[in-house]
Amino acid sequence: MSTNNNKKNNNSKKVVTSTTSTSTSSSEGYQRGSNVEFRSLHKERQQQLKRKEREVEQQSEGLDIDQTDKRISKVKKLEKAAQIVSSRIKEKGTRSRFDVDDQDNILLDDKQLLRTKKSDRYQNPDTLKKKRELKKKEKMSAADHNKGDSDDKKKDDLTDEQDAEADKLIPFLPKTVKSFSTRLYSSDIYAGMVLLGAFEMVTDSFIVVSLPFGIRGYVKFNEISDEFTKWSNSVMKDNIKYKSNFQKTDSILERIKTMFIKGHLLKVAVMGISDMKKKGLLCTLRPEVINKESNIGNFTEGMNIYGSVQSVQDKGYIISFGSGFEHKGFLKFEDTKFYWPTTTSNVDASTATETTLSVGQPLECNILTISESPKIVSVSVSHFLVSRATTKDSTAITAQSIKAGMLVEGTISAVYDNGLQVRFLEFFAGDIHQFHVDRPLTDFQEGRTLKARIISVDHEKKRIHLSLLSHCLGLRPFPFNTLKIGDIFHKDIIVKKVDTHEILLSLPDEFSKVKGLLHNTQTENNKESLKGKFNVGSELHVPCRVKHVDYLDAMVTLTTKKKEIGKTIYSYYDLQPGQILDGTIKFVRDDSIEIKITDNIFGVVPMHNLGETMILKPRERFNAGQSLRFRILKVVPEKKRLVLTLKPSLVHSTLPILSSKAACKVGEIAQGFISRIEDERIHVTFFGDVHGIVDRSQMSRTPITMISEHFQIGQVVTTKTLQVNPKGLFLTLIIDNADYQQYLNSIQNNKNQPEVKDEENEEEEEEEEESEEESEEEEKVEVKKEEPIKNNSKKTTPPPTKQQQNNNNKNTAKINTKSNYN
Hints:
Layout: H1 2-28, H2 36-60, H3 65-91, H4 110-121, H5 125-139, H6 142-156, H7 160-169, E1 194-202, E2 206-210, E3 216-220, H8 226-237, H9 245-259, E4 265-273, E5 281-284, H10 287-290, E6 304-312, E7 316-320, E8 328-332, E9 362-372, E10 375-380, H11 383-388, E11 390-391, E12 407-415, E13 419-424, E14 428-433, E15 449-458, E16 463-467, H12 470-473, E17 488-489, E18 494-498, E19 502-506, E20 515-519, E21 544-550, E22 555-559, H13 562-565, E23 580-588, E24 592-596, E25 602-606, H14 618-621, E26 627-636, E27 641-645, H15 648-651, E28 669-677, E29 681-685, E30 691-695, H16 707-710, E31 716-725, E32 728-732, H17 737-752, H18 759-767, H19 770-793, H20 802-811, H21 814-821
Parallel strand pairs: 3-5, 8-10, 11-12, 20-22, 30-32
Antiparallel strand pairs: 1-2, 1-4, 2-3, 4-5, 6-7, 6-9, 7-8, 9-10, 12-13, 12-15, 13-14, 15-16, 17-21, 18-19, 19-20, 21-22, 23-24, 23-26, 24-25, 26-27, 28-29, 28-31, 29-30, 31-32
């Protein structure tokens, strides 16, 4: 063992002597100066190196070769540190006149060395401090020296978490120079991706949301929030307060109506492909999904945070940010005064009232204070604070916590033909597509600062998309005014930009702020390229029809196909109560059937409207694919809700359609069905969701003891209006034959009366030529001949004959015929 140790010591000595020999040989090249101070300094340097050799030899006794090599490596590190100091001296202007390759490259020529000796080594306090620290390190033991190196490394290097976060941030910085601005496609979206959306409409089973670049999302009612799901489940189980599933659905829809309005901007998270639409996405509004990968450390005072109302307390609301947050939010009642969308910006603070929020309602909140004990975050839903909250603290934002909906300050780094590229929050870069710029791109220059709102973050492809549209920046609905699906434009459509597969258009002056998009698949020749066929600035000379309204992009999708433009029923807006249509059965359920009218229009027939009497088992009477003729009872275009009836007495009724309470007059006779029975009255529903009440005294000339014995739900009755009240109509079932005939005669007389013309129209007609007047009179005669046919297809029909009246009376209940025609 002793021989082995001696060999190791000898080897270590050889290594050390080799290093010193190289240093002394190289230093001899500098011993040519005649200055005494230089030589003494050089001699002092040699003595220091020899002392290092002796210290290493003493410490290496009794140690193995590996430990000796570590000691030698420490010496080399000290020498390397000396080289770094010399390089810094050179950067300050004390560069040597000689370029000598030397391991100890700290020694300079004579004059330069004297100058350095006087200026830096003795006059610079920082240098003296470093020298003292160097001596302390030389005296440290091996263990202490290793510990000191590790401490220095901890100060300079990043932690493992910071290093991993830095790796995530790096891909968001552009590595290559692009020549265009990217956009988001449906193929780029994945589960868990958070997007900025706009509330479009609510149907009987889901919420429709407009997503960036024309993509649509569907949110089921159980994906709004956990609290809302609990409440809606309790409603569906309550058979006492709600008599039917339609009443339960109406209650849920009314709650949603108070929570959102059309164009409401909100955050949504993608869950997968929807089974309801071919290209739709199934989304969620639940805070635990949207706030995933975020914690309270990613938020500071003044930033926005997404949550939902968990409960109502004495002084405010408890806000939940998701299961991943230990903190809870508290919203005071007084901080709801300026909540949008129920309040506007011109409301005076003294007259503003508190907004009542619903349990489970999603909210975008602004952080006022953050408390760790207790873990409470004070928030406000004031639209002034929420819409102006700008994310500025880059230290609090990580690659995973950056979300759609954030307002950031950025600098334009590039201007492309189809958009902009901006840098923000030091580490991030994103694209602003031309669809989300409301001004010409020529108005922007590189280096200009601006504010933009993030609309999507793609963590897989490391892409961020932002918007400069005013309604996105202000978190307000875009004003489409009267523009709706199905509208047709015949002129003033100007081409703004032409690409291979799509054209960007501008609409007439009334909708000048709305962009129009025409894809090549919506043209007659859908496989051909659009470039070369249209010129920028020219007018589109073919009619265009609005196919879809995008509430986030402030854009409408257009079509020029003749088949689409020629459709008489294109959307729910083309339907009206009382209209007779044909369709086919799509689904047969236990309590209703669903009917397909067109590829995009569907209606529901409730159980009490499947026939003259209640049909308890619809599956035994109807089959999918069966063709039927029906009449529209109620249509709500905004919700895409259509209620139909198959009752023969209503479908083939010859009486005028009562579809508006405002247009109803005293003495008007109409047909409806019983929708509710009480102890002292019955409720009658007409077309257009018009309701009336019939008291017990107005049901029959003979006394009725038990109403339920003479009437049933769904029964068709003929009524006469006694009084028009803001809450409804007061009706009677007691109608004399004389009253009935007098009412029909008054309808016929109103049709035969000539139309009353305005004075302005009469003056214009007098100025026209006689030949034009004669042609107009001939046209009026032809129109009068066609009027009965038009009325049959819309609302009214010719008066019934006596035979038709008798047949109609047979279809009603016995008590009805007795009370009406005694």
